[in-house]
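seq:
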Amino acid sequence: MSTDSIRVYESESLGGQCCETICRNNCSCEAYAPVNQANNTGCQIWLKGTRFTEDARLKGQSIYLVRQKVNRWWVWLIVAVGASLALPLICYLCYASLRKYKAEVDRKTKQMKILHEIGGNAMISMVYGRTKRNKKEAKERHEVDIFSFESIVVATNNFSDSNRLGEGGFGPVYKGTLSDGQEVAIKRLSNSSGQGLTEFKNEAKLMAKLQHTNLVRLLGFCIERDERILVYEYMPNKSLDFYLFDASRTKVLDWEKRFSIIEGVAQGLLYLHKYSRLKVIHRDLKAGNILLDEEMNPKLSDFGMARIFGSRESEENTNRVVGTRGYMAPEYAINGAVSTKIDIFSFGVLLIEILSGKKNYSRFDFDCPLNLIGYAWQLWNNGRALELIEPALDEPSVQNKVQRVIHIGLLCVQDQAKDRPSMLDVISFLSNDYIQLAKPKQPAYFNGDVEEESELHNIKQEHYSANYVTISNLDVR
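struct:
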């Protein structure tokens, strides 16, 4: 071996152990060996940088290699500091993960509870029991879907104003495009809305179970986080009031279209009152809640205020009166009496609005303030009913039909609920001109101070007046 970088200690007092100690106390020492092999005394050490090669002079000599213990205190300092910093971070991440997990569990628990309240086990199975293979079949069966909030955000471009279609009592409505390209209308419950979870569940429950060509179809909903969102089929022609009360658009509605809309609304109401699995009172029928598809076919919407009846029930009273001023039947507004006849009353108001192109709360006589119903009643009694209609309908070929529809409308708005026809009767009257119609009696609200249509949101007050009617314990929108 080469003897470069060797130090030799010749003292005979240095034994083998001393030699080892000298080497270990020198951080540059890499190997050592006794000088005198016979008695193992003296010491020679090899420092760092020694090159070990074959050397005849060292043959047979024992050389001991030493691995120095390096003092790496700074390594442990870094580890200790890193651990002290990482521990809070690890604790926070664990806490955040736990919170996220708990929030997800709570969300799913609430979601399951709402789903159960909406439609029971059938709804839960419907939403969570699907596979990709049977999604198409579910769509064909008109089953509702459940949407993630992220998918709704993407569909509406983060609820951009350019996608906003309007706003109702429920909250803003947006146009959206789903991932498969389908256009939808998305109703998002507003925090300032007079409606809440009760109305949301009510509408979702009803629309998930009701299917009719004249009812807007519910595609699904979102109940993620604090969001309450309903997803409906998109109606490209907006609502009836968009055309009916605008002079620049009303010409689109000729007699055939108006009569078709009247028939469609009547069929939708008949289904709700008589032929659906649930007997339903809409309670907020008005032009703004009649949506029009691409062919101007009407579809009833906004079932947040609807009331479900048992199959044998015909009437009940409620302390919570909801609806829109100008369309509410008197017995409902005054006493909270709920029956199919309150929808008949609203339908009668709607008929007269469709024919006249005017709103019920419009003022027609400054000497004796009349609303639209009062004005129609006055003209009817004076034999001048056709003066009520829009100029676009003033054609000799349709005058008899128009006058008959006015007659039917006045029958529907009679003051006493028992005098109003059923929806089945109304459809018979509309489809068969040979059926003799009874003489209408005085309607409700035919005069009084005229107030604009308004919606009152979740308030309770002692006195509320609309055309001299006082209501207690109100909760209307």
